[in-house]
Amino acid sequence: MSVFNQSRSRIIRIIFLLAFLIIIAQLFNLQIVSGKYSKLAMDNAVFPKIIYPERGIIYDRKGKAILNNAIMFDLMVTPAEVKNFDTLSFCRLLEIDTVEFNKRIKEAAFKNTAVRPSAFQALLKPQMQARFEENSWRFPGFALVERPIRLYPYNAAAQMLGYINEVSPADIERSGDFYRMGDYMGKNGLEATYEKVLMGQRGVQYIIKDNHNRLVGSYENGTFDTGAIAGRGLKTYLDIELQEMAEKMMTDKVGAVVAIEPKTGGILAMASGPVFNPNDLTGPDKNKNYSRMALDVAGPLLNRAIQGRYEPGSTFKPLGALVALDEGLITPSFGYPCFGRYTACGSGKPACTHSSAGHAANLRLAIANSCNSYFTHIYRMAADNPKYHNVGNGYMKWKEYLNAFGLGTKLGVDLPSEDRGFIPDTSVYNKEYRGSWSSCTNLTLGIGQDKMGATPLQLANAMCIIANKGYYYTPHFVRKIDDETEQDTALMNKYRKKHEVLTHISDDMFNAVMDGMEAVVTQGTARVAKIEGINVCAKTGTAEKYAILDGQRIKLENNAMFVAFAPKEDPKIAIAVVVENAGFGGTWGGPIARILMEKYLNDSLTKLSKADYERISTTNKMPKHLARLQYKEDSIRARKWFDMTKDSSYIEKYTGIKPTTTPGKKKEIPEKQRQPELVAVLPNEKSLYKQRLYFFTIS
Amino acid sequence: MSQHNPAISKGIDWSLAWIYFLLVAIGIMSIFGATYVEGDPILQSFIGFKTDYSKQLYFFIVALGIGLLILLTDSKFFPATSNIWYVGGIVLLLLVFPFHTRVSGTESIIRIGGFQFQPAEFCKICVALALAKYLSRPDTDFSKTRSQLIAAGIVLLPAAVTIMQKETGLALVFFAFFLVMYREGLPSAVLIVGFAVAALVVATLLLEKNTLALILTGIALLVAYLMRRQVSRDKSLLIKIVILWVICVGIQRFGVPIIFKNLLAKHQVERIYSTIGRDVPKEYMKGESSTTASGKKVVNTADYNVKQSKIAIGSGGLAGKGLLKGTQTRYGFVPEQRTDFIFDTIGEGFGFVGSFVLLSIYLLLLFRIVAVAERQRSVFSRCYAYGVAAVFFFHIGINVAMTIGLAPVIGIPLPFISYGGTSLLTFTVLLFILIRLDADRQMVLR
Question: Which chain A residue is nearest to residue B188, measuring alpha carbons?
Fold first, then answer.
């Protein structure tokens, strides 16, 4: 009985062997063929802790730090560790109620599991942080975590500096996963443009964690750790005191001021009204403040110095003269017989302020008296230049000059979202007039009107061209990047390149233009800009402005335009001022420009200027129609919110009226959406501008 | 008792003994690797009986003591008392029902004082002995169906009781004894049919119902076509094919769903499906569905264990990370680290090379046992030896296969390596009885 089945012992051995071979094959597959498991094990057990570098500092031209780094604290909670807890006193400390407390704990546990820490309250107010630190032993499961923030000691230059904020998922994707959730990045202004310089280099510390994500200790004794490298600083041309004054004067006004150092293109000051305090976008209330400003129809988040598009009006006239001079169409002695209106095109338009004979007997006088006929005429000469055979070619040549001056094209300032202004193409006129138009059609281009639009930065840059007698440097803020690398040099090179835009004009001819602009100050419309002991060259402008409100086109007060540079002999500052809703260019623009030039050149103010400074700073020139506009937008948004959520609180808040339809049952809205910050989808700044542009269009 | 053996060592198969010592040493080292806390004084921890590796060391000393006692026992003692062992084992198994602890998941454990005891483990020894005894009876004619049924009954009775204690994994071990019966002349057809049914069940889980029915029909038609000559000669053959087809479709259509819906517990269904890498279908879900109200998929623990286990072993690579260097096993990512998933420590720490060496040692052990079995003069000893080989084979195969995702997670230990007093003692006793019997291989035991 025992012998006859002996062959089966071999079969049993084969079964054993086969089973082991299958196992070994799978082991071979797991351990040798498939490479993914090592990475998975690393992901499981090694936590790369990011060490954040200190962000670079931005300095003004005198080496003062315009912004500083500071540390605030997020209160983190690990829900699983919240035990034996004095909820009441904790809530009293944080000034919240227990309902809110439970809600946040639940949310934290849901978002990031109960054993991992999540933010309970971001950016704790300093007094709360102090109170918490004293009592922290009473609150197991809670801990403070450092968060870097920016502080602005001068409360100035908000729109230019930009702000930093946590990266969004879209940012992470755009960066090719360079950023990680929780990183901060520059979101606007210089912070965004120079992000790579300012951010520095993150360090990584590898830490072993266990299955509950508790950190156990350093991985491989820190062999793979890398230290963080602090961000590099930026030295700017900005004069922070000048900046402060400019902003002070733009308080409660809509408009912009730009001051440039002509010889370098360095921006000395740039302000956009209405101004806001950069510290509003840092710290615990930043989201609240951001929403408020984003929904403000006056658009405080806009940087009108580079995003506002204005009709230059008479401030354009010196530039028209430069084109004609460079083309050889006129000489400084060229005169035009104007008797109060321009009659060559039959309509008698445009009219001219002066009608006395000889007020445009030469270029200097024409600029000094701002003769509309003269500059209309020389525009038409350029457009109808026989050299270019027809008006289309002639016009395009004229436009080419303007583009070279930086009008109608992005200058390339080191801030994001610059507007390019607008110099129409022939196609615009071809379309509008079906191909039949002449230099008479758009003759007001010669006096800076028609469809022409320019940013204050472009106007200031145009002044630099005159001040420099024919060249400019692209306006920019940053003079020097600390420890400049090759990459930085590539970035900075475009600001170090001289743009020679006028090569056929002799110094004498430039002097004629300057003389004209000087005469505007000594005896013309810009007398208000006169500075004792300094020869100032300036030009005023006034642009009419309309808005459409409640379906009606209403005329608003004029925009005051003012451009200037000084001193005439060796220009050190070129300036452009736009104040909306302010009437004549000289009244508001002039003093602002004078005060800034005086401050910059003399480092002190005269008695008169001090008085003007006080007066301007405290005057509210906000357009009146904005209040109505704000009411409309708020109530429309509240209504949309009501339709979405049946929550009438905003309607009542903005209108004082209860909604007409009886609210039905509340729809379930996810927790997140209920926060007031998300009353409406916040428009980004660019679309915000487009929306507003409508109301700021100059006819 | 030892009057027949002036020296204990006489006739002992030292190769088995050395393999035993080697495996236990690897086991203690693995438990040390899995549970050592950085900074503990190693020597004191080993002596202190506080840590798991220290306890395992003491378990080994106790087991070795019992092993020596077995070696001192007369070899005739085992065949003589086989039936008493078996009855005792069954009684112990039944005692679990009134005496088990009330903690869920421990329905098969008896607790006496500070010790806990799992009779199902002990029962393996009893069944091995009883089966050997029955098969070696002079009046057993194993070619008769009746004898085969009785033998199957001996094996399946404890399995049934164990299933009632919700320890399906442990119960499956008893099926390993069919290998012994196969060696003793159980028709190959039984094993083949067994494999075929298993294949059918797996196919049922993997394939869509109707697809599988169509495939089965296709196979039936193909067989009928290929055998058309025989069929034309013998019409009953066609009926047999049809009956087989009905049985197969029946199993696939009704048998498997009934087992999954009514017999298996929720975690078992989940484990089986996680092994084949599928989600549990709706019809087999028990109790609350596996997704929470928020729609977030709840991590299936069996699934998690196997994934982490595969990561641990896979990340070991060719040569491994070294003892105490495995991040998976050191930081608690693999649960049941020191018991059922102890193989991970070797896989992660010593890589493919280490795993290969360990498996080779095991294979050597099995082959050695088979060789020892075949040199026995007495049928009892041979049957018992095959029983031991079958139990070891099942434990090693299933345990390792489950850690690398080839078998469902059933909590059975890796012989001599997994942490645990009961299992180490059981396997030691199994092996030492064999060594004792082998020492007297010239005797014909009844």
Answer: A8
- Which of A6, A13, A31 is opposite residue B314, by nearest beta carbon? A31
Q: How far is CA A320 from CA A180, A388, A565, in A?
A: 52, 18, 18
Q: What is the per-residue pLDDT across A214-228, written as a single tens digit (0 to 9) for each?
A: 677 777 777 777 778
Cβ distance of A46 and B405 shorter than 8 Å:
no
CB–CB contact B313 A37 (8 Å): yes
Size of chain A, expressed as the number of residues it contains: 699
CB contact under 8 A, B374 and A9: yes
Q: What is the DSSP letter of A534?
A: B
Q: Which of the residues A1, A7, A30 would you substitute to probe the B interface, choosing the one with the greatest number of B C-beta atoms within 10 Å?
A: A30
- How far does A34 lie from chain B, in Å, by closest CA? 7
Give the one of B179, B318, B379 whose C-beta lies nearest to A2's C-beta.
B379
Cα–Cα distance measured from residue A417 to residue A523, given in angstroms and rounded to the nearest whole number = 39
DSSP states along A63-93:
S-BS-EEEEEEEEEE-GGG--S--HHHHHHH
Cβ of B327 within 8 Å of Cβ of A30? The answer is: no
Q: What is the reported pLDDT for B372?
A: 94
Which of B181, B363, B368, B402 to mutate to test binding with chain A, by most A CBs within 10 Å of its CB? B363
State how far the Cα of B343 lies from the Cα of B358, in Å rounded to an integer.
9
Please tell me the predicted confidence (pLDDT) of residue B106.
Answer: 59
pLDDT tens across A428-437, in order?
899 888 888 8
Judge whether residue A172 has pLDDT over 60. yes
Kindly report, residue by residue over A132-160, the tens digit of the pLDDT: 888 877 888 888 877 778 889 999 999 89
Across the interface, of B142, B179, B397, the residue whose CB is closest to A12 is B179
Which range has the worst mean pLDDT, A384-388, A628-632, B21-25? A628-632
Q: Which of B330, B351, B367 sits opposite A31 (nearest CB)?
A: B351
Whether residue A41 and residue B314 make contact (CB cut-off 8 A), yes or no, is yes
d(CA B109, CA B101): 7
ipTM attached to this prediction: 0.88
Both structure tokens of A486:
């090759």
Closest CA to B130 of B167, B92, B157: B157
- Best of A31, A36, A115 to substitute, by most chain B Cβ atoms within 10 angstroms, is A31
What's the half-sphere exposure (Cβ side, CA atoms, 13 Å) at B296? 6
For every residue of B155-209, DSSP letters joined together read HHHHHHHHHHTT-HHHHHHHHTTHHHHHHTT--HHHHHHHHHHHHHHHHHHHS-H
pLDDT at position B216: 86
Instruction: Quickly tell me which residue has 């089945």 as its tokens.
Output: A5
Measure the CA–CA gap between A228 and B196, rounded to whole angstroms: 63
Which residues of chain B carry a pLDDT beneath 70?
1-9, 100-107, 112-115, 276-278, 285-302, 445-446
Q: In this structure, what DSSP letter does residue B2 have? A: G
Is A671 an 8 Å CB contact of chain B?
A: no
Name, in order, each residue with C-beta under 8 angstroms of A274's C-beta and a sequence gap of 6 or more: A250, A251, A252, A253, A254, A296, A298, A299, A300, A622
pLDDT in tens, A261-293: 999 999 999 999 899 999 988 877 888 888 888
**pLDDT above 50 for A664:** no
- Please state, in angstroms and rounded to a whole number, the distance separating the CA atoms of residues B434 and B439: 8
Q: Which of A183-192, A492-501, B81-90, B259-268 has the lowest mean pLDDT?
A: B259-268
Distance, CA of B429 to CA of B65 (rounded, Å):
10
Over range A450-472, report the average pLDDT.
Answer: 93
Contacts of A211 in chain B (CB under 8 A): 331-333
CA B356 to chain A, closest CA, distance in angstroms equals 7
DSSP state of B109: -
